[in-house]
Amino acid sequence: MFKNELSRNFSPAKFKQTELNVFCKSIIQAMDGNVHFPNPVPSLEQLQKLQLNYQQSLVDTIDGTRFDTAVKRNCREKLVDGLRALANYVEAESDGNLEVLASSGFNLKYKPRRIGVLPGAKGFNVRPGSNPGVIELSCQVVPKASFYLFAYTESPVSGQSVWITVTSSKRKARIEGLQSGKRYAFRVAACGTRPERVWSPSLESYVL
After folding, report:
1. Which are the contacts of 107, defined by CB distance < 8 A and separation ≥ 6?
2. Torsion angle of alpha carbons 95, 97, 103, 104, nearest 10°?
3. How far apart are the C-alpha atoms of 81 and 85, rounded to whole Å?
4. Where does residue 54 rank: exposed (0-12), middle (13-18), buried (19+ CB within 10 A)?
5. DSSP label of 13
6. How would you classify the pairing of strands 172-175 and 183-191?
7. Per-residue pLDDT of the chain (208 residues; tens, 9 = 90+)
8. CA 85 to chain centre
9. Is 102 helix (H, G, I), strand (E, B) or coil?
10. Which helix H or strand E contains 49, and what residues bound it?
């Protein structure tokens, strides 16, 4: 079961230099006087000091030296550490309550959507291969499918038929070693995280 959590991604790719500074100030504003978080760790005063140090380092690097750049990097690391520590406190106090978490000003961690049973594959196609005893199978791409199961059995199909499956990471499969001149039935199912399979209607073909 998915638990509501806060995002701890404060990387430069997520928050550029000034963006992290603005984000931190918005956290301090949201947390100040918030009844859900009476004793923040670190304190808002401590976090604000880290934020102001980082803000000053941004100014210093405009026409600064390599030393100023190193100071800015160090200030950012300390600010990120403070934000992550505060995120830990917020999660502990909120006990997964979504509204309480959101009131802190932090971004929520992405909640994955539950993927149900995948639909049956469409456009199933069966054609003889270029060599004897070979059949080429294909279907249309099914969104969210992790892999495909292609299955075959000798025709005619009955309740006692034994289906042999071939797994493919793509929407195509090549079945080899079939008996030439014999008729087979084929089917396909797209597979995701759920164990249920929706098989396509079977198609029959003679093998060259």
Report:
1. 6, 7
2. 30
3. 6
4. buried
5. T
6. unpaired
7. 457 888 888 889 888 889 999 999 999 998 999 999 999 999 999 999 999 999 999 999 998 899 999 999 999 999 999 999 999 999 999 888 888 888 898 888 765 556 678 899 999 999 998 899 999 999 999 998 888 999 999 999 998 889 998 888 889 999 999 999 999 999 999 988 777 889 999 999 999 8
8. 25
9. helix
10. helix 44-60
Length of the chain: 208
Please give the single-letter amino acid code of residue 129: G
Q: Which amino acid is present at 40?
A: P
Distance CA 157, CA 176 (A): 20
Structure-block tokens of residue 143: 């969104």
Q: Which amino acid is at 69?
A: T
